[in-house]
Sequence to fold (88 residues):
Amino acid sequence: MTQRRADHVQHDITIQNLGEGVEEATFAEWLKQVGDEVTTDEPIAELMTDKVNLELVSPFTGVLTAQLCEAEDVVAVGAVIAHIESSS
Fold:
């Protein structure tokens, strides 16, 4: 989901497809903190599955404004885990 505020846009960061048959992952750690600037395709977090560990990359350039999970949380595909705000 994307929300507009004045000249800024807030983007939801979700857990995307993790591979065939993988429906959830364990959140490992944040690589970026709230207030950090991020660029498109920059790693912002690490996830663990039974099969592989992977980095979650930002689909947007902007500022990380919220982290909605923490280490050892189990997150499902489609779950919103963060917000990034960008200029419109």
